[in-house]
Amino acid sequence: MPTQEMRGAAVLAGLGAWLPPHVVDNHELSQRLDTSDEWIRTRTGIGQRHIVTPGMSTVDLATEAGALALRSAGSDQVDALVLATATPDQVCPASAPQVASRLGLTGIAAFDVNAVCAGFVYALATASGLIAAGAASRVLVVGADTFSTLVEPNDRGTVPIFGDGGGAVVLRAGTPGELGALGPFDLHSDGELADLLVVPAGGSKMRRSDDPTDYFLAMQGTAVFRHASARMAESSREVLRAAGWAVDEVDSFVGHQANVRILNAVAKHLGVPKEDVVVNIERTGNTSAASIPLALTDACVDGTLKPGDKVLISAFGAGLTWGSTALRWPELADVESPHREQRIVQAAAL
């Protein structure tokens, strides 16, 4: 357990991301849906997405991403694992203990956090709290989702948007002034607008339904766009104010990769130049809780994020939930691109 002097901040010490090998591009979708590559790109900025194949699950993606983050951190042990997901392998039990077991981390605290697309920011805040409280000195935070399993296969409004993936970071106890220290955090929700993004059936309120579409995601796209743009901008301003940063000090804005138009709208609200907005949605689609760590990984690998850079992070998801945080980018080792030939970890320990 950490000593009192170690509890000041959670510091980013490792980073990893993984995408399932099967890629579905816009041309393939246009063969079976009333859509086109131009229609999808114009409205979302997405060109392709990675999709799980039969037998592959959220736990698989989370395990792969977690293993890469641990390797990047040069560590094979943590005190806790927080998994951000809205698509667990089962309704019960939580998926985090299974991920921990596969990584050889049996016995540690492991639990799920569900704030949907804002889940990774919520999980970062949760893990930071564990470290600040002295309950853990090192935490593996994973965001993984298989949202392709929640979209109605013939719905051109949702199928092109969502992809599957996993991303993870290792946080260690450290001091607020060092590179990689996370915070401040700004978190919010509005349950009165829960119906804007909802899967109606399958939970305790509606366990079963005779309408098959009740088991798929229903989304009011126009309203979601409006709320996402405004809420992410408001939250980002709060974090900048708390951090004492001016907007023109931000080197990179890493927003949830839901839609390139939302990212551009948030940047415009904030006054962040387009060239400082990290965008990888063209190759991944909306990967929900995996979105932020996937974007961070891509930006780290391609050199966009450099040690000392001031990085602003913000996300918005169903619930409604949204939140933001900030950090100065650290020096990280062994960070691999998620766009590579891949394998699946099946062993109980690495």
TrEMBL record:
Cellular location(s): Cytoplasm
Pathway: Lipid metabolism; fatty acid biosynthesis
Protein's UniProt keywords contain S-adenosyl-L-methionine: no
ACP-binding, as annotated region: 257-261
Gene Ontology MF annotations: 3-oxoacyl-[acyl-carrier-protein] synthase activity; beta-ketoacyl-acyl-carrier-protein synthase III activity
Top enzyme class: transferase
Matching InterPro entries: ACP_syn_III_C, ACP_syn_III_N, FabH, Thiolase-like
Reactions catalysed: 3-methylbutanoyl-CoA + malonyl-[ACP] + H(+) = 5-methyl-3-oxohexanoyl-[ACP] + CO2 + CoA; malonyl-[ACP] + acetyl-CoA + H(+) = 3-oxobutanoyl-[ACP] + CO2 + CoA; 2-methylpropanoyl-CoA + malonyl-[ACP] + H(+) = 4-methyl-3-oxopentanoyl-[ACP] + CO2 + CoA; (2S)-2-methylbutanoyl-CoA + malonyl-[ACP] + H(+) = (4S)-4-methyl-3-oxohexanoyl-[ACP] + CO2 + CoA
Domain Beta-ketoacyl-[acyl-carrier-protein] synthase III C-terminal: 240-329
Keywords, ordered alphabetically: Acyltransferase, Cytoplasm, Fatty acid biosynthesis, Fatty acid metabolism, Lipid biosynthesis, Lipid metabolism, Multifunctional enzyme, Transferase
Active-site residues, record numbering mapped to chain: 117, 256, 286
Biological process terms in GO annotation: fatty acid biosynthetic process; secondary metabolite biosynthetic process
Membrane-crossing segments per the record: none
Domain Beta-ketoacyl-[acyl-carrier-protein] synthase III N-terminal: 111-191
Main subcellular location: cytoplasm
One family name in Pfam for this protein: ACP_syn_III_C
Keyword flag Transferase: yes
GO CC, any one term: cytoplasm
EC annotation from Swiss-Prot or TrEMBL: 2.3.1.180
Cited function: Catalyzes the condensation reaction of fatty acid synthesis by the addition to an acyl acceptor of two carbons from malonyl-ACP. Catalyzes the first condensation reaction which initiates fatty acid synthesis and may therefore play a role in governing the total rate of fatty acid production. Possesses both acetoacetyl-ACP synthase and acetyl transacylase activities. Its substrate specificity determines the biosynthesis of branched-chain and/or straight-chain of fatty acids.
PANTHER family with a match to the protein in the record: 3-OXOACYL-[ACYL-CARRIER-PROTEIN] SYNTHASE 3, BETA-KETOACYL-[ACYL-CARRIER-PROTEIN] SYNTHASE III
Entry domain remark: The last Arg residue of the ACP-binding site is essential for the weak association between ACP/AcpP and FabH.
Assembly notes: Homodimer.
Family, similarity comment: Belongs to the thiolase-like superfamily. FabH family.
Protein name (Swiss-Prot/TrEMBL): Beta-ketoacyl-[acyl-carrier-protein] synthase III
Lineage summary: Bacteria, Bacillati, Actinomycetota, Actinomycetes, Pseudonocardiales
